[in-house]
Automatic annotation (TrEMBL):
Top-rank lineage group of the source organism: Bacteria
Protein name listed in UniProt: Aldehyde dehydrogenase family protein
Family: Belongs to the aldehyde dehydrogenase family.
Pfam families: Aldedh
Stretches assigned to the Aldehyde dehydrogenase domain: 16-471
Keywords of the record: Oxidoreductase
The organism of origin for this protein: Alloalcanivorax marinus
CDD domains to which the protein is assigned, alphabetical: ALDH_KGSADH-YcbD
Keyword Oxidoreductase in annotation: yes
Lineage: Bacteria, Pseudomonadati, Pseudomonadota, Gammaproteobacteria, Oceanospirillales
PROSITE patterns in the record: ALDEHYDE_DEHYDR_CYS, ALDEHYDE_DEHYDR_GLU
Cited SUPFAM superfamilies: ALDH-like
């Protein structure tokens, strides 16, 4: 049994939940505690009690704690990457890379602790100086998804602690193992008790308690748009500070002048790797008619050569879908695409492997219409559709015709079109001749429209959410 971490102590939950390997459902990784509302309130109270001393504590100790976490993550990336892949289903190289990214994030923010910034300006009124500083917001509730079970917690927890906040962390129910392993490292980093708390459990219990508590000053959430709307309605109603990342329906535009082999690889990497379970995945291929047929054939051939198998298996390109519910949803969208009249080029069926897991052949639809559900709704699986475009202007209009705006890509050899797309794509992130999925740890992450709400994540831009600005006037 792996327990919650509250007020500096490992605490039994009100219940327990098994962690099942999606590559082999017979493999139970461990059992993890489930916090109830009372335990969540205890964690909030511990964070609230720890905040006054932590916010005023020495920055050197804070930097050293974050650096300790980053160094241990890096040293154990193979071990923890195996755990991550075992519980979430992404391939072992992807799991190891994700742990390494988490290590880089903690070490980046260890440095940021020592670079708090600020401004001193002259006032327009004689005899006054103006000092502009940033202060922590207080207790931060962190609610994370299952698809990046250690990187997304890292890019929320690290800046929260770096800027002097206290944390109550609620990971996704499906991936408690990575969250617990991260929390165990944090528990040995030298943080005072109550500064960091782990409360594993159901969103309707733990998450809802965080949203409703007046002692939680800010909520940072990554998940579905439906849940994000509930977060906003509940926590926003009491004027908590909010940061919401809620998914996408990301376009990849492929123009006639694109290098075909490169465009196919960009499309396949962006749409299908990590089993398509990325909010930045390319789920719409918007392809100019002159290259359309060759592009569809190229993607089909590339998919035929991919190995879908156990996440820890040698040579596996794509692991399983995360659980039965997500697999059912993905297969349901394949049926919807057929019913809507799109042409299923390949894939879309459940696969049987040596171990009993949630395996699915990556699906490619062609000749999709922009108003079809498979072209408008986030599927969050290895399913993508190709939509023909008359020319660049038509492709751009199709790319922007969505309620989402997280990531958008274009494959072209035209500097003119690449530059125009970079300025006119209605997305928070734009990729030119590179997959829509895949971002650096030191630059801002986030989108527009229904994809994101509130300040950006990652890099120095994280300060916008995890701090509040104070302006002070001083008469010498």
């Amino acid at each position: 049994m792996r327990n919650n971490f509250i007020a500096g102590a490992w605490t039994r939950g009100a219940g327990a939940r098994p962690d099942i390997n999606p590559s082999d459902t017979r493999d139970v990784i461990d059992e993890y505690a489930q916090a109830d509302a009372d335990q969540t309130r205890q964690a909030i109270a511990a964070a609230r009690a720890a905040f006054p001393a932590w916010r005023r504590g020495g920055i050197q100790a804070r930097a050293e704690a974050l650096d300790f976490i980053g160094l241990e993550l890096a040293a154990r990336k193979e071990e923890l990457g195996r755990l991550l892949s075992r519980e979430e289903g992404k391939t072992l190289p992807e799991g190891i890379a994700e742990v390494n990214r988490a290590a880089q994030i903690f070490r980046f923010f260890a440095g940021e602790v020592l670079r708090p910034g600020g401004e001193t300006l002259p006032s327009v009124r004689p005899g006054l100086d103006v000092h502009i500083t940033r202060e922590p917001v207080g207790v931060v509730g962190i609610i994370t998804p299952w698809n990046f079970p250690i990187a997304i917690p890292a890019w929320k927890i690290a800046p929260a602690l770096a800027y002097g906040n206290c944390v109550v962390f609620k990971p996704a129910d499906l991936v408690p193992g990575s969250a617990w392993a991260l929390a165990e490292i944090i528990s040995r980093s030298g943080l005072p008790e109550g500064v960091f708390n782990l409360t594993m459990g159901r969103g309707g219990v733990v998450g809802q308690t965080l949203l409703e508590s007046p002692d939680v000053n800010a909520i940072t959430f990554t998940g579905s748009g439906t849940t994000g709307a509930r977060v906003m309605a509940t926590a926003g109603a009491r004027f908590a500070k909010l940061q919401l990342e809620m998914g996408g329906k990301n376009p990849l535009v492929v123009l006639d002048d694109a290098e075909l082999e490169r465009a196919v690889e960009v499309a396949v990497q962006g749409a299908y790797f990590s089993t398509g379970q990325r909010c930045t995945a390319s789920s719409r291929f918007i392809v100019e008619k002159g290259i359309y047929g060759r592009f569809v054939d190229g993607v089909q051939q590339r998919l035929a050569g991919l190995k879908v198998d156990h996440a820890l298996g040698e040579g596996t390109d794509i692991g399983p879908v995360v659980d039965q519910s997500q697999l059912d949803q993905d297969l349901g969208y394949v049926d919807i695409g057929r019913e809507e009249g799109a042409r299923l080029v390949c894939g879309g069926e459940r696969l049987q492997r040596d171990s009993d897991g949630f395996y699915m052949a990556p699906a490619l639809f062609a000749d999709a219409a922009p108003d079809m559900r498979i072209a408008r709704e986030e599927i969050f699986g290895p399913v993508a559709c190709a939509i023909p475009a008359d020319d660049y202007e038509h492709a751009l209009a199709l790319a922007n015709d969505t309620e989402f705006g997280l990531s958008a890509g274009i494959c072209t050899s035209s500097l003119k079109h690449a530059s125009h797309f970079r300025h006119h794509a209605e997305a928070g992130m734009v990729m030119v001749n590179t997959p829509t999925a895949g971002v650096d740890y030191h630059v801002p992450f986030g989108g527009r429209k229904g994809s994101s709400y509130g300040p950006r994540e990652q890099g120095r831009y994280a300060a916008e959410f995890f701090t509040t600005v104070k302006t002070a006037y001083v008469a010498p």
